[in-house]
């Protein structure tokens, strides 16, 4: 059973920082991307950032320049460093990982999520 586990959420004031972690044993050996998503109350889930097995990264425009995604292959963990947080960053943050099927990263798994609350 693949079950990524997130941690690091909490409550901060605007301008503050948090670092989220997502641990998925098997992530490195899967050679698939891992991504962070978030869902604010009453809104649809949105993609935040992704990191590939070769370390290349992508960000949503709303977080570019403020968030940094990184990984520790030895720990099978992906991090999301969030700086200059804004109230609009308030959401449940979840990581999505994947496993290969017939050579493609097509089997996706979600963590339970970690809540981030930013007050003004």
Helix content: under 10%
Distance between the termini: 40 Å
Q: Can you summarize the main beta sheet? A: 7 strands, mixed
Whole-number mean pLDDT? 95
Low-confidence spans: none
The best one-word shape is globular
Helix-strand category: mainly beta
Number of strands: 11
Percentage beta strand: over 45%
Q: Count of helical segments? A: 1
User: Rounded to an integer, what's the Rg over CA atoms?
Assistant: 14 Å
Order of helices and strands: EEEHEEEEEEEE
Descriptive notes:
The protein has 120 residues and is mainly beta. Helices cover 3% and strands 53% of the residues. It has 1 helix and 11 strands. Strands 2, 4, 5, 6, 9, 10 and 11 form a 7-stranded mixed β-sheet that branches. Strands 1-3-8-7 form a 4-stranded antiparallel β-sheet, with no helix packed on it. The radius of gyration is 14 Å and the shape is globular. The N and C termini lie far apart (40 Å). The model has no long low-confidence stretch (mean pLDDT 95).
Topology record:
Blueprint: E1 5-7, E2 10-13, E3 18-23, H1 27-30, E4 34-39, E5 46-51, E6 57-59, E7 67-72, E8 77-82, E9 91-101, E10 104-110, E11 114-119
């Amino acid at each position: 059973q693949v079950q990524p586990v997130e941690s690091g959420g909490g409550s901060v004031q605007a301008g503050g920082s948090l670092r989220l972690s997502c641990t998925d044993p098997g992530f490195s050996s899967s050679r698939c991307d891992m991504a962070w998503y978030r869902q604010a109350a009453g809104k649809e889930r949105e993609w935040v950032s992704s990191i590939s097995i070769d370390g290349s990264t992508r960000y949503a425009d709303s977080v570019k320049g403020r968030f940094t995604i990184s990984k520790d292959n030895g720990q099978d963990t992906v991090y999301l460093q969030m700086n200059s947080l804004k109230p609009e960053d308030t959401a449940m943050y979840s990581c999505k990982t994947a496993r290969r099927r017939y050579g493609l990263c097509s089997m996706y798994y979600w963590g339970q999520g970690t809540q981030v609350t930013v007050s003004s």
